[in-house]
């Protein structure tokens, strides 16, 4: 079954209706009239249709949503009511031209004035009222003898169905003899020649007179006409607003000009680089067969790569220095300590160190010698007392010599001012540092000094020559001090046959070569530790101290690790570890390392400090016993002990 077709609904708004609506909106904005109170009557007059307020403002809102531009002050259809049809950017030029023509057809409002000798009909100032009708009304009206009428209000009268609304004005007339005169109506043509529906004007005595529609708008315009002072204030506010917009635009133009200038500089630099590349390409083609040029280019390329690598390392060092991470981490330090301990142990084993006669050794090494000082640092007693107690407790000879050699290594390397060449006097370098301190401040001086040290100690020359030569010198000193424990290469262990250098003997101690590897590793670690903003302390635990697993580890070679599987606790750990906790320490074979953060006054931030307080501190190891430590130190590497 076919669906029943409904007749199409008639259009409420025609195109010409929209043109008249927007033209009247521009008209009220131009002459500052009340749009909301007069638009319905205007549309009823010029279109012959009766619209209500909801239809009018709903139409304006739809036009703003479809064709309005964004960016207004209020961001809604109120911008259209405030700016007029110019806010509709979606309209075509022809539409705007039609609105302009309709606006021109609306005559400007005239001023209200009263003439006591003028008939009532002359209050209509509409130019659309025919001159003949006005003249006829003024000649025949008997109201010229009475007082001037005054409009008190505007009423809307709803007529019968199909009729239009009429605007009724109440006119007060003093002692009018024509209060009962019948009303009349005059039909006036508009600008296009169309007949406009009559508008009845009634007095209180029901005396109707016809007033043209434009007279109503003239009266409303007269009431809403702004004063000259108000217009001047509006112009001033508009001028201030435009001036602010102009300043903002000038600022944006300046920013764009700066950006353009930067782009031009970049373009100029790119063009120069392009020309250099082209020149290099032409030179490469020209010297394609020139072997000398190719060799020079390879050398230059290698130099540039080295410079690039140095720049990369310098940026990385700066980033680490800003976070106080230029020095080695604790994990790296522990690993290096384990390797140094292994190197010392291997060196003592390779030289076959021992104690053939304790009495001869004590008689040879007088009080105050290097070995005696090391023994006091190790066991808090003299060398003779150390040897007697260690031998009585069943400690092996190699472990005793190993522990004394470890004390000597720590004293010669870590607790010295290595690298010692940094302590040399340099008047020119001191002047450089003074100028940096004055110009850039203590923080910049400290950063530059740390970066200079890091760059110097990262050079291959420093590692291959400076560290190696220093290690050889220290190896000779260590081997000479331990000569009473080390036999010569061609005979059994001796005590008095080998003389120290300086006692009518020449040549180098051959045992020194075995200590070089451990000393090189220790010197490299010391060079890294001076770049850390920390204080360090080496602690040798004395014999008799209770074993502490938090700061000590048991030497794996002093006691066998082989154990029956039955002698384990329920956690899977050997039961011997439980007994080690209660066992006393017999001998400390390798020291524990402690560290703490530098305090602010240690970096030279107090009043009255010198330039040296802002520089790298090569003597960053404190020499004291474990009892002298405070709670600020923390364990970095544990001590190796024999129990």
TrEMBL record:
<feature type="coiled-coil region">
    <location>
        <begin position="246"/>
        <end position="324"/>
    </location>
</feature>
<feature type="region of interest" description="Disordered">
    <location>
        <begin position="175"/>
        <end position="200"/>
    </location>
</feature>
<feature type="compositionally biased region" description="Low complexity">
    <location>
        <begin position="175"/>
        <end position="185"/>
    </location>
</feature>
<feature type="compositionally biased region" description="Low complexity">
    <location>
        <begin position="124"/>
        <end position="135"/>
    </location>
</feature>
<keyword id="KW-0175">Coiled coil</keyword>
<feature type="region of interest" description="Disordered">
    <location>
        <begin position="552"/>
        <end position="575"/>
    </location>
</feature>
<feature type="region of interest" description="Disordered">
    <location>
        <begin position="124"/>
        <end position="151"/>
    </location>
</feature>
<protein>
    <submittedName>
        <fullName>Uncharacterized protein</fullName>
    </submittedName>
</protein>
